[in-house]
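re: ur question from the group chat, yeah i did fold both. here u go
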Amino acid sequence: MDEEVKIIDTNTRNEQIKKFFINNMKNLIIGFSIILVVILGYLLMKEVKDRKKIKLANQFNIAIINFKTEDKKVTVDQLTKLINKNDTTYSPLALYFLIDNNLIDNRDEINSLFDELIIETSLDEEIKNLITYKKALFNSDFVSENDLLQILDPIINSESIWKSHSLYLIAEYFYSKNQKEKAKEFFNQIMSLSNANTDIKVESKNRLNRDFGE
């Protein structure tokens, strides 16, 4: 008797499953089609993205390889175009190469390229903070106190890993201007940070002890 009941239950369940598929065939086909399209679309986008990355890598490498043989302007044009592609890897590398090799004399042009990365490129937050810090470092010998603070404001008002670097740069800026009380204030801020860079914290402590008698 129990065996017959099990057979009936199994047949009933199979019939219900069969009816479910028959009654919902259209919806199931649409559902599977959507999933298939999404998967294919993702794979296609990944392929396009990978090819674009390879193309940008080739453009960067060619510009670097030709640097010593090509006219300076050619290298500047190639790397500037690469920066304006707003790629998260090769756009920053292109700007660093231009700065490290002093290929652009115009500071406004360099700052415009910094802003292209900071504002227009979808960078990881800490990468963006690093580039902002580099912009401040690049300008620190030329700009006013307010301009330097304005550049670094997004970092010093955050918990970024680059905050201690930024505070140290400001402290050194004020010290170089013989504004020692302001410099001391920023050295002390570094000492109070829980995530300050170890070397910068040690150097700040040494500066406070040596130059301010603390």
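okk and heres the other one u asked abt
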Amino acid sequence: MIALQIVGMVVLGYLIGAIPVGVIIGRLRRGIDVREHGSGSMGMTNVMRTVGRAAGAFVFLADVAKGAIAVALAWAIIGPSSDMFFWGQVAGGVAAVIGHSWPVYVGFRGGRGVSTGFGAILVLSWPVALIPLAVFILVVGLSRYVSLGSILGAFTMLLAMIPFIVYDIEPLAYIVFVAVVALLVIFRHRGNIQRLLAGTESKIGQRVKTG
């Protein structure tokens, strides 16, 4: 029974995470596929550059909600009294980030997973979530590079969770979530890393021409 519940968390988490909000907004607002412009992502930053700030903010909130919902489903599907509850949360959260990154609905070309991962960690452990958020805001504010803030924020999330695990504040399962998601986020930003090193990465506020 528990195996089926975990599978259910994975499947539902993936399908929720895969909802291509950025692509939908781009088509509704501008008649474009945002993945064909700018960074090629369907996430907040590229939507903001190609469609506008309001659209980008909406996509951010929707992508955060995807991660949060995918984790919260564990209360309904598994139940907090189960020994596997925390692992169910992790399964749903990781699956949502994978779904956002490789969405089945639009040819497996998605976003970087940052907002969806943030939504998931907010539900798992909001105190831990606030630490990488602060790092993200600080780095973006100083450098104007959203990608750099995302990469360092993902790495900080992993570091921030460690003492919570060591002092038994959070369950061991959560370290699996932050480790997997941090690696996924960094992997999805490999092109950005190359552009950062080359000095060609776009800064926040730069608008992309879409014809």
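fwiw on the second one: The mean pLDDT is 95. The chain is about 70% helix and 0% strand. idk if thats what u expected
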